[in-house]
Amino acid sequence: MSSNHLMYEKLSKLYEGVWYPMFQKSFKKVCGHINANNPKSVLEVGIGPGSTLKFYDPTIKLTGVDVSKQMIEIAQKKVEKKNLKNVTLLATEPDNYPFEKNSFDIAVTFSVVTVVPEPIKFVKSIVSMIKPGGFLYIVGHFQKSDTHELLKTIDELFDPVTKKLMGFTLKLKEEDLREIKNIELVDKFTATDMLNFPFNTCLVFKVK
Ligand SMILES: C[S@@+](CC[C@H](N)C(=O)[O-])C[C@H]1O[C@@H](n2cnc3c(N)ncnc32)[C@H](O)[C@@H]1O
User: Fold this and answer.
1) CB-ligand 1 contact for 19 (6 Å cutoff)
2) How many Cβ atoms sit within 10 Å of the Cβ of residue 89?
3) What is the 67 CA–ligand 1 centroid distance (Å)?
4) Is the pTM of this model over 0.90?
5) Cα(48) to centroid(ligand 1), Å
């Protein structure tokens, strides 16, 4: 297990109180987009403590995976408390998920691509589980080659801090994800604003 995974095992109990208030609007917004596609099946990779559960349409067959058993246990309690019969949760190995190819209409991942050691491998492993014609939603903080120099400098300054405290990088490039074969960027919107700056972006890819 990588040091980041261990960090999330340790942070799982604290995590929700800190993270949820910052990102709840983005969970609602992105899940709203997903619901509007009327998918039958959705996979959420790195579901953490299940903060998104309440935002999905209950008619969707939702599968949530995470490498942290503690996170899955917290999410599972919510599933039981709310009696969400449409939800299945699993603790898995990183980048090796126990599903057939082409199993899901949509896959989504919130703030995970920036914490994994090999983001391209991570995304490719998810793409293989989505049906052709389906969609992949990736939410994260990305740099672009045309990101304003001031914002790049802020990212440079804070990257060691976010890496140390929360395990995520501020320096992942959107262009690197767009190089992945079999997927095409079809939409993009701001998922989270901070002090009026777009902090987290949702990239929507169609699977060819
Ligand atoms: C920054 S947290 C985000 C959690 C949740 N998506 C949210 O936004 O509240 C990252 C989560 O991804 C999980 N994770 C890290 N690497 C993973 C991987 N390769 N596959 C699945 N989950 C992973 C961690 O255990 C942690 O729960």
Assistant:
1) yes
2) 22
3) 7
4) yes
5) 5
